[in-house]
Design brief:
- With 134 residues, the chain is mainly alpha-helical.
- It has one domain.
- It is 63% helix and 4% strand.
- The protein is built from 5 helices and 2 strands, in the order H-E-E-H-H-H-H.
- Strands 1-2 form a two-stranded antiparallel ribbon.
């Protein structure tokens, strides 16, 4: 049985449900991505490319774990998701959303995503010990 925590859909869902706490408004990270996408926000574009790469990798290779390119695409996709999250807070000059780091529920969702992303990365780097096909 395949490990469910390393499934690409779980990575995407856990990324979307990260809670963001603002001064007046809070919500899931998906809301902030959708609001920034029409304006070309860097964090939303990074997230979009990361999600598209994860979906392409999953639909093309079906988690066979025998192709090197599958692991490379998965690693790049998760790095893009993490960069999206860092870009979101780095570009927040007024520290409007920094309540995320002081409240327990947003911290829990961030830790859950971090554990899932780390497990997914480790699965793509370390666990794939079969011969890769190029």
């Amino acid at each position: 049985m395949k490990n469910i925590i390393t499934h690409p859909y779980i990575v995407i869902i856990s990324f979307f449900i990260i809670m963001i706490s603002g001064q007046h408004l809070g919500g899931f990270y998906l809301l902030y991505l959708l609001l920034a996408l029409p304006h070309g926000g860097m964090h939303s574009l990074l997230a979009l490319f990361g999600i598209v790469l994860l979906l392409i990798s999953y639909n093309k290779y079906k988690r066979k774990k025998i192709y090197l390119i599958e692991s490379i695409i998965n690693i790049v996709a998760v790095v893009l998701l993490i960069l999206s999250f860092f870009s979101f807070f780095y570009n927040d000059k007024e520290h409007y959303n920094f309540g995320t780091f002081y409240q327990i529920v947003p911290q829990i969702t961030l830790v859950v995503f971090s554990i899932i992303a780390l497990t997914f990365l480790l699965d793509n780097v370390l666990v794939r010990n079969k011969q890769f096909k190029v």
